[in-house]
Amino acid sequence: MPTFQFEAMDATGQEIKDIIEAASEEEAQTTIRQMGYFVTKIQVKKGTAKAVATGPKKKRPFALGGAKTKHICAFTRQLSILQDAGLPILRSLKILEKNNKPGKLKNALMDTCEEIETGSTLSESMSKSPKVFSRLYVNMIKAGEAGGALETILRRLADFLESAESLKRKVKGALIYPVAVVFISSLILVLIMWIIVPTFKEMFEEFGLTLPPPTELLIAMSDYIVQYWFLLLLLPFCFWLTIKLARKFKHGRMGYDMYMLKLPVFGNLIEKNILARTTRTLGTLVSSGVPILEALNITRETAGNALFERIFAKVSEAIREGEVISKPLRDNAAPGFHPMALFFWMWVGAFPGVMILSVALTAGRNSKQKGSMESLLQIGAGSLAGGAVCAALFYMMKMNNRVIDELVVNMVDVGEETGELDTMLYKVADTYDDEVNVMTEGLTRLIEPLLIVFLGGAIGFIVIALFMPMIKMITSLA
User: Fold this and answer.
1) What pTM value is reported for the model?
2) Residue 62 pLDDT more than 70?
């Protein structure tokens, strides 16, 4: 029979450490409770852990990727229901493990069950599967075990995960339509440039027409796409790779995240989304009994933005020195200047000019277009310099705008004074969730007419550029 080491508290609050022999962990906990103690920690004594393991290790099915959030939400909700019903934790986990389809979550549950059978606690067992159970998840489970309210913590955790997943689905759903329209419209424009415009170019060359500037620009763009079609695939990949490599470094990640937060319209949406997620995370951890410093560290890791991670790190340092949360939040809410953020703004601002220059240089190789492309080269150079300068000025004007509103600071301040910090954080999260929903719906309605205007302008330019020389040709023939 295995021997269990346990830590418990008696009726007077005194800590008790002892050992007990029992057939299983559930039986050991029952015996300890009958002795009048409240169990805070229990595990198999070293040397007997191997004896507890039942049979050989189960074979794990092969699984690609990670566990989906919606599956973890469903598992957490089901586990909370089973715990409310009074089932032992090991039996509950085995029931859910059998009901799950093969994948990362099923493998993690199998590992968790085996760890519990060797005497580990639920939080310790789940921490062995960090790709499925995050640090936030594990620490909330740990708080529930310590407080003896695991079913309550699981219910709160399920509510939190479902709320976060719902917000993520709404944002993704709002972006599906504009992304699909942009992709299809870009494909149509490329086909026009690739197939239709070259046909008109041959016809104009046969008649020896002097082409107006819009037509020459259109033909130059068509030649560029036909000759360098691979850039249509390579440029987006290079953009993605540059950003990915930059984010590998501390300053590159900070600069890019600060750039994203200052984007017109979308930056405000990103900021409110992060605030909704972080305040709800912190509120859930505080209400679950996780120590405030540990809660702040976990919240910092779930922020997903280097600037907010820095703010929460400053808050943690201030709390260690005896400060309240609201003061460092207010003091560090303004991002300030960052050279990499300026680089990203100037890089994006100069990109249209770079493209115009490359089109002009490509068209300039044709001897018939050299003179007419000089003006386009000047336009490209001016666009490059002007775009970079305008983007830099925009960043300099916006860099000190606060990313944490005074509303958040005041609500946190009131929560600390009244002892209802978790309640106030929940209210802030609900407020920003509603704002994100409203902004998402508004952006969806705004993007539709903007896309129509863009497509109409692009098609209109192509039609005008192609028909101007045709009208001239018909007039001369008449």
Assistant:
1) 0.70
2) no
